[in-house]
Design goal:
MetI-like fold; 1% strand; 24 helices; MetI-like; 562 residues; membrane; ABC transmembrane type-1 domain-containing protein; two-stranded antiparallel ribbon; MetI-like_sf; mainly alpha
Length: 562
């Protein structure tokens, strides 16, 4: 159709396809370098170890695994204990979060603080505290025997179930509390006006809307329980799990058999993801409809329910406070229960002694890994969201793959792939840093990808039109705009890296031993006061580092706001 004067309208058609994508990428050397580096890092440290682990086992290894009943029993134990622990941790996390957002109980700020505390401690510290309280020589066990002539024997599944529930309940709580906080009160008020009250309102509206958070919480806790090594080794006794069996085969120099068990361990984790996806696909859970909700007060629980919720939260708080209290008592007494004399000897011998650098190693390796993880996540999110190039979906899939894999499997893949062959990294700090990076980077990548999609692309295009290349745009435009998200992801990665055990237990050497491994080693040999000292030193170092971050970034990071 002609315009006045007979001229055709000017139409600009953007060329699409692989050829045009490659052409645009070649014209931007900075973007090309970022894409190539991203592919190279993920291929080297994700794809290559995964292929190596799959190809390593021979027919004999597979036959050995399926012919020995102990391995089948370990697999069954892993599925049973992980499922039970994930279920109870999720239920406890939901009730705890529900009480914070839907009740009128007193002390909500205190209960939020209690839920934050276990995040500071390595999961193996829960196992240590359990031994100090309920082990054969534990304080509670000795009291029960002296007063009631009752001998507690919680080793095996009962103890492991309790320990993993307490250890991973905060993870479930954090996941669920975000969903409950975001539920709009208008639907609940409308249901109440239509006659829904009490448990019916909770069952038909609140619980259904919170289902995505509940399922995600179960998923995250289950993955962590599948990979948990320290607690099963300390508490499990004869109740063997696959993660413990893998560790034993690595110690016995049987990488092929260990790889078989690692691959088997991945199957339940992947099944959890599949089940989660199918459940969430069955319904709609949207509550943000564009309708005004300001001024609406959320429907609160009844007085009787408040009392029950307060009792439940108090019991959870008591468990967590007891865990920390017994650890601190052992760290600052000569041998609590036998000699309660206050002393700093354990701290000076184990934490502040240059010949025992476990805490300092944890700090250095965690800082380096967290910086690299967030930096790499930023680059990945930038090129995937902003740059067209062939292989984008493959890069995105590979970037999030490590989050679906149990930490034990990630550590196993790295040690078998880089202990021989063309690239030898066994015994080096590099491999520990890479292991930490792989487990924490996907979380930052997901968060930064969402943040990039919320930032208008025209801002970066304007910088490009003014002559800025991708590197300059990333450092001067993108980074300042996403600073809060970046800092938040760094804090999360740092805290997780400081406390990690399962992912790096295969990679530790005497030179590069870290605090979580030292806690496990001391607890296993019965030197509980040294294990407690390292745990207290680790938590103190983590708190001090987070405090410095808070002073530096101030309102850009929320650490101690409960």
């Amino acid at each position: 159709m002609n315009l006045e004067g007979g001229r055709e309208p000017l139409m600009i058609i953007e060329k699409k396809g692989m050829g045009s994508s490659i052409g645009r990428l070649m014209k931007d050397p900075s973007s090309l370098i970022l894409v190539l580096i991203s592919f190279a890092v993920l291929c080297l440290f994700v794809i290559y170890p995964l292929i190596y682990v799959i190809a390593l086992p021979g027919a004999t290894d597979w036959t050995t695994f399926f012919s020995k009943s102990r391995y089948a029993k370990a697999l069954l134990n892993t599925v049973v204990s992980s499922s039970l622990s994930a279920l109870t941790a999720t239920v406890c996390g939901f009730i705890y979060a529900y009480s914070i957002h839907y009740s009128n109980i007193v002390g909500k700020k205190f209960f939020r603080f209690i839920a934050f505390l276990p995040i500071l401690a390595p999961s193996v510290m829960t196992g240590l505290a359990f031994l100090l309280l309920f082990g054969r020589g534990g304080m509670v066990s000795q009291t029960m025997k002296a007063w009631f002539n009752v001998e507690l024997d919680l080793y095996g599944l009962p103890g492991l179930w309790i320990v993993q529930t307490i250890s991973y309940f905060p993870l479930a709580y954090m996941t669920i509390t975000g969903v409950l906080r975001s539920i709009s009160p208008n639907l609940e008020i409308a249901a109440q006006n239509l006659g829904a009250r009490g448990f019916k309102l909770f069952r038909t509206i609140t619980l259904k809307l919170a289902l995505p958070g509940v399922i995600n919480a179960f998923l995250l806790v289950a993955i962590n329980c599948f990979a948990d090594f320290g607690n099963p080794k300390l508490i499990g006794g004869n109740y063997s799990l696959l993660a413990v069996e893998i560790y034993g085969e690595i110690i016995n120099n049987e990488p092929g058999l260990a790889s078989v068990m690692g691959l088997i361990l991945v199957i339940p984790a992947l099944l959890v993801f599949v089940i989660q996806g199918r459940l969430l696909a069955k319904g709609s859970y949207s509550t943000i409809t564009g309708k005004p909700v300001s001024g609406l007060n959320r429907v609160k629980t009844s007085r009787k329910t408040d009392i029950l919720l307060f009792i439940f939260n108090s019991i959870m708080a008591l468990f967590i406070l007891s865990m920390f209290a017994i650890t601190i008592l052992f760290a600052f007494t000569k041998n609590f229960g036998r000699d309660n004399t206050f002393t700093l000897d354990h701290m000076f011998k184990i934490v502040f002694n240059p010949s025992s650098p476990a805490v300092m190693n944890s700090l250095v390796l965690s800082l380096i890994s967290s910086i690299l993880a967030v930096g790499f996540a930023l680059v990945l999110a930038y090129v995937v969201v902003r740059k067209p190039f062939p292989g984008k979906k493959l890069l995105d899939f590979t970037a999030v793959l490590p989050i679906a894999l149990p930490g034990t499997f990630v550590g196993l893949a790295l040690i078998v792939a880089f202990s021989n062959g063309p690239i030898m990294l066994q015994g080096s700090a590099i491999l520990i840093i890479v292991a930490m990076l792989l487990k924490q980077m996907p979380v930052g990548y997901r968060g930064l990808t969402a943040s990039f999609k919320q930032v208008d692309k025209s801002i970066e295009e304007a910088a490009t039109n003014l002559g800025a290349d991708s590197r300059r745009t990333l450092t001067t435009i993108v980074f300042p705009m996403l600073q809060k998200t970046i800092v938040a992801n760094f804090v999360y990665a740092f805290m997780k890296n400081m406390n990690t055990l399962s992912t790096i237990v295969f990679l530790i050497t005497p030179k590069w031993v870290v605090a979580a491994v030292s806690i496990f080693n001391y607890a296993e040999t019965g030197t509980y006061y040294w294990a407690a000292a390292v745990a207290v030193g680790l938590m103190g170092t983590t708190l001090a580092t987070l405090g410095v971050m808070k002073l530096i970034f101030r309102s850009k990071v929320k650490i101690f706001d409960f």
